[in-house]
Each structure stands twice: as structure tokens, then as C-alpha cells.
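Design request, C-alpha cells follow.
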């Protein structure tokens, strides 16, 4: 005879099952091992302890193999989806001004924001090297949590893989993101027109220089920090005063020079930059001189290149300067009809030279 019906809250077995169901797993190991990627209890404990506890939200908490969204809520915010993905392999994992986790969130948020989209949802997939300290992973996840909160996005699904020691270098992260573009916004590298102004929101090359110094391969000491930050709030400020922004892009790998060349080629126009107007810290200039680098090609993680009609330039510049992420904004160039597809730099000496696309890699594993 069954003294405790299976649906009775007084059934001790039923109570025990409920306790187990509600219990969140905890990682007992100090270092990642292959069992953490096996699909079993060790992996579930890792996901619960490191990721679910940090990224918790109603969509993620379902712990399905996919995240599902209400289309009606998306449609209310715009008429197009923006979708992007990026992978992060930066070395070292932690550097002045940021870390790989913050970089992964902000980098993907910024790729959405420069399309004019409101970033909403991110994925997070990690590839872990056997032997990685669990505490390192905790720090990265906590950093991602804070960055996502600051950017106003939710991490809603993900994946974890563990590989043998030496198969990757400590930790690689992939993030994908979805955002919604309002109907009145059309931003594209194909929109440039002669007379447009080129605006940047601050100093170039800080991220690249900070990573270089953090690697400890040079006997240099500076206070340079990465400019890693979310740019969505700044983009929103720009669009509030100028919905007809022609083009926008964050100057990450390849730096300003590569972004400007991409714009010129896509719109078949010329672009003239003014060397004396381009903001670069003296310390960054010094590092570039020592190593034979060009700050125009150094990576950034919080710099935005904006192309707007010339008549809107001062209004946009003023709005950018009113925002913390754009307080050092300045107009650095103009779009010209010819030579098409070519970027010119007017130097401090009054001469002009061609600024080509980056050839090769100045600094590997920069993001």
C-alpha cells in the first residue's frame, strides 16, 4: 500500500526530488578538466555555477538548446533584425582597462550598434583548455555579467567545450548577437556622398598599445588602458540628433585606416583625412615610433567612425561631446568625389599621401 501518494507534498521522496531539482550545481574542482565538457554532471555543475548564476534571466533559465523570443515584442521596436557574431582570442586574458569577457560583450554589442540597431540578446560559447583555473573562468564570467548589464543586453544561450591541454591557449569565447533596427534608420558603408564629414569619438590606438604592453615583451611602463566599452548609448545619442547618419563602424582590428578604406571602396568615393586633427596620445605615438607601427592601423575597442552629411557635422559633434564616450570627439576628414576608392592623408607638412588598407597583421591576437 502506498502511504505517500506520488503527488503529495508530504511525500518525503517527492520533497527530496524537489530539493534536487531546485539545487544549482557547484564546481568542486580548482581547474578545468575534460569531464567539464563531457555533457554529464560535471559539465552541468560548471554551467550552473559559472554561467547560469551570472547570466540568469527568464530566457536563459529555461536551459533549452535554443533561446526563443516573442516576435511581437521585437516588431514593436523596429522592422529589421541585425545579427552578428565574433570570436575572441585576446592574449593576455586580462589587460589594463578590460579582459576577454568584457571585450566579448562590448565587441558584439558595438557591431550591432553601428548598424543603428538596439542590441537585445547575446549568445556565449566558450572553448576551455584543460587545466584552466576555475577562478579565471569565474572572473571572466563576472566581467561578462557586468558588461552585459551596462550594455542593456541579456545572454540567453550558449555552449561549453573543453579541449586537451595545448589545443587552445587557455580560453576562447564566441558571442553572437541580435538587435532590432528602427524603421527610419538606414546606415550603410554604401551611403557616403561627397561633402560628408568624418568624425571619430576619441583617441586612437589605446587598445592595441595596452595589449602590447600587457604582454610584457617590452621593457616599457605606461598608464595606457584599453578603450573597451559599449558604444550603443553613444550611437543612440548621435541618432537622436541625426537619424540620417550615412555610415558608422567601430574601428577594431585594422584600425581607422582599414575602416575608412572600406567606406571609400564600398561607396566608390575618395576620403581625405587631416593628420593634425586625428587624436592620438603621446604615449601611443611613442610606442609606435619605437616599434615602427602606425597608430592609424592600431586596434580600438571603443572607437566609432561616423560619416554624416556635412551640414549636420557640428550638431553631431556637439551631441557626441556631451556623452562620456564621445567627450574627445572631433572631425578628422571629409568625403571627396575623387580619386574613387582611395583614402588620402593630408600631413602636418601640407603634403598628401595615400593611406592603404592594412597589409598583414601588426599585432596578432588583439581581440
Amino acid at each position: 500500500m502506498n502511504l505517500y501518494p506520488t503527488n503529495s507534498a508530504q511525500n518525503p521522496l517527492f520533497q527530496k526530488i524537489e530539493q534536487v531539482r531546485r539545487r544549482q550545481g557547484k564546481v568542486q574542482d580548482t581547474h578545468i578538466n575534460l569531464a567539464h565538457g563531457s555533457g554529464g554532471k560535471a559539465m552541468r555543475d560548471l554551467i550552473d555555477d559559472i554561467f547560469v548564476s551570472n547570466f540568469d534571466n527568464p530566457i536563459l533559465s529555461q536551459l533549452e538548446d535554443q533561446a526563443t523570443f516573442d516576435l511581437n515584442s521585437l516588431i514593436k521596436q523596429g522592422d529589421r533584425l541585425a545579427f552578428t557574431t565574433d570570436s575572441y582570442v585576446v592574449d593576455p586574458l586580462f589587460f589594463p582597462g578590460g579582459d576577454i569577457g568584457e571585450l566579448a560583450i562590448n565587441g558584439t554589442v558595438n557591431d550591432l550598434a553601428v548598424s543603428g540597431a538596439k542590441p537585445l540578446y547575446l549568445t556565449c560559447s566558450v572553448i576551455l583548455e584543460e587545466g584552466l583555473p576555475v577562478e579565471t573562468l569565474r572572473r571572466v564570467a563576472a566581467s561578462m555579467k557586468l558588461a552585459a548589464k551596462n550594455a542593456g543586453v541579456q545572454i540567453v544561450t550558449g555552449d561549453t567545450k573543453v579541449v586537451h591541454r595545448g589545443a587552445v591557449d587557455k580560453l576562447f569565447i564566441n558571442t553572437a548577437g541580435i538587435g532590432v533596427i528602427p524603421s527610419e534608420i538606414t546606415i550603410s558603408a554604401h551611403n557616403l556622398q561627397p561633402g560628408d564629414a568624418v568624425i571619430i569619438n576619441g583617441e586612437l590606438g589605446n587598445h592595441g598599445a595596452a595589449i602590447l604592453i600587457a604582454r610584457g615583451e617590452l621593457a616599457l611602463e605606461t598608464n595606457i588602458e584599453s578603450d573597451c566599452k559599449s558604444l550603443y548609448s553613444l550611437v543612440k545619442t548621435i541618432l537622436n540628433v541625426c537619424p540620417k547618419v550615412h555610415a558608422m563602424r567601430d574601428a577594431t582590428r585594422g584600425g581607422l585606416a582599414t575602416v575608412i578604406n572600406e567606406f571609400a571602396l564600398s561607396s566608390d568615393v575618395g576620403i581625405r583625412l587631416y593628420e593634425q586633427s586625428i587624436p592620438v596620445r603621446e604615449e601611443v605615438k611613442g610606442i609606435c615610433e619605437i616599434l615602427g607601427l602606425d597608430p592609424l592601423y592600431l586596434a580600438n575597442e571603443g572607437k566609432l567612425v561616423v560619416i554624416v552629411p556635412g551640414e549636420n557635422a557640428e550638431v553631431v559633434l556637439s551631441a557626441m561631446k556631451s556623452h562620456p564616450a564621445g567627450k574627445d570627439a572631433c572631425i578628422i576628414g571629409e568625403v571627396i568625389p575623387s580619386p574613387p576608392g582611395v583614402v588620402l592623408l593630408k600631413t602636418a607638412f601640407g603634403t598628401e599621401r595615400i593611406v592603404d588598407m592594412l597589409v598583414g597583421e601588426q599585432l596578432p591576437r588583439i581581440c
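Comment from the thread starter after seeing the answer: thanks! The domain at 27-181 is CATH 3.30.1330.10 (60s Ribosomal Protein L30; Chain: A;).
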